[in-house]
């Protein structure tokens, strides 16, 4: 039988490489993740990986147990103190709610809300089995918060959200803090925010990736499987006509040098975010079995991934660096050369700006007009102002 304590300690040591606090590390040691993932082996449950727990009819993941590292990072962003009242949006397996309950201590309170009744029922059973009967789990639209227990000291979303819900802001106490995986035109960043001079301002911003909020308040992002055999998938910040992407990828192509180098981490953290907020035609593509996409600097074990620009059945996408370490862009379709040139121009602009990344990003959420001349991402309820520290 697996040594559960050793497995859990191994996971914690892996997570601690990100520099998380001792308090959060101790919570990870105390909460048995395998109890919240009874369908997988303990050896799998204690890997530092996200584990998909439910898929939709098209095979796309719609619920998971998030990667412990990003959970720990977000808990540090949240800064839970003993005795606080916490609202969690997105119950999932219940594992994060248990961590929150431990951090808030015996004098605290945790309310976790999920729109899926089946998930709520399972999470309730997991929490009881793990020794956390005091966590309140409610089936409701998380975008409306949970007014019955407001005000809250902390609100955290464990699902990707397109906008800040007015209910969350209203239900937070005067010195409250909000942590959400916030959509920035198709790219997620975990943003910790507090009140500041009539708006909400970020305290920290870190890369993340979460299942999207479902229900009537879901955002306009579109993810579509183009080929089931290779699981070739395209993601767009909003639904729009792109033309026949498969035909373009199956047709002739050409590559162009950019004169810019870059590694996977800085491109994912920096350039992809830059592209998303500056280029309305941007997209990301990935496949689990190599076939159509060129090898790209965003690849990871088990899949090929790239980012670029798509329009009218043509694409320009990032391609792996050549022998000189410089990145290239790959063009497909009749207008691919122009799209590739635009993509290369964005890459050069990002490099010229000093390769800004999440660590230097400041996000403000305004319920009214945004400051003139700012880089603004329009949402339904807020206007997000993005600034990079110089």
Automatic annotation (TrEMBL):
Its EC number is 2.1.1.77. GO terms for biological process: methylation. GO terms for molecular function: protein-L-isoaspartate (D-aspartate) O-methyltransferase activity. Gene3D superfamilies: Vaccinia Virus protein VP39. It is found in: Cytoplasm. Pfam families: PCMT (PF01135). GO terms for cellular component: cytoplasm. It is an enzyme of class 2 (transferase). Keywords: Cytoplasm, Methyltransferase, S-adenosyl-L-methionine, Transferase. It comes from the Bacteria. NCBIfam families: methyltran_FxLD. Belongs to the methyltransferase superfamily. L-isoaspartyl/D-aspartyl protein methyltransferase family. PANTHER family: PROTEIN-L-ISOASPARTATE O-METHYLTRANSFERASE, PROTEIN-L-ISOASPARTATE(D-ASPARTATE) O-METHYLTRANSFERASE. This is Protein-L-isoaspartate O-methyltransferase.
């Amino acid at each position: 039988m697996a040594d559960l304590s050793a497995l859990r300690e191994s996971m914690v040591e892996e997570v601690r490489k990100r520099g998380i606090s001792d308090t959060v590390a101790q919570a990870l040691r105390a909460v048995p993740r395998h109890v919240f993932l009874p369908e997988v082996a303990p050896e799998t449950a204690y890997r530092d990986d996200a584990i998909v727990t439910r898929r939709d009819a098209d095979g796309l993941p719609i619920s998971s147990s998030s990667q412990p590292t990003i959970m720990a990072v977000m808990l540090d962003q949240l800064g839970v103190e003993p005795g606080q009242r916490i609202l969690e949006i997105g119950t999932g397996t219940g594992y994060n709610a248990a961590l929150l309950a431990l951090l808030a201590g015996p004098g605290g309170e945790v309310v976790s809300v999920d729109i899926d009744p089946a998930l709520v029922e399972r999470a309730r059973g997991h929490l009881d089995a793990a020794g956390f009967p005091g966590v309140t789990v409610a089936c409701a639209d998380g975008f409306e918060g949970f007014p019955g227990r407001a005000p809250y000291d902390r609100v955290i979303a464990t699902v990707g959200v397109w906008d800040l819900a007015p209910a969350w802001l209203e239900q937070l106490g005067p010195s409250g803090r909000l942590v959400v995986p916030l959509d920035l035109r198709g790219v997620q960043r975990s943003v910790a925010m507090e009140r500041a001079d009539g708006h909400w301002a970020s305290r920290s911003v870190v890369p993340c990736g979460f299942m999207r909020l479902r229900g009537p308040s879901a955002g306009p992002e579109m993810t579509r499987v183009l080929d089931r055999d290779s699981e070739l998938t395209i993601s767009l910040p909003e639904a729009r006509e792109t033309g026949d992407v498969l035909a373009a990828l199956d047709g002739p192509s050409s590559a162009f040098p950019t004169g810019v180098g870059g590694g996977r981490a800085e491109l994912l953290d920096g350039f992809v975010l830059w592209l998303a907020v500056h280029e309305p035609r941007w997209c990301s593509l990935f496949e689990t079995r190599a076939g159509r996409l060129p090898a790209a600097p965003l690849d990871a074990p088990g899949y090929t991934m790239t980012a670029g620009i798509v329009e009218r059945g043509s694409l320009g996408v990032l391609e792996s660096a050549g022998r000189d370490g410089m990145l290239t862009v790959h063009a497909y379709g009749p207008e691919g050369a122009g799209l590739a040139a635009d993509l290369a121009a964005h890459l050069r602009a990002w490099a010229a700006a000093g390769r800004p990344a999440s660590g230097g990003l400041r996000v403000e959420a305004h319920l009214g007009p945004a400051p003139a001349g700012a880089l603004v991402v329009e949402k339904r309820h807020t206007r997000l102002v993005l600034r990079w520290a110089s």
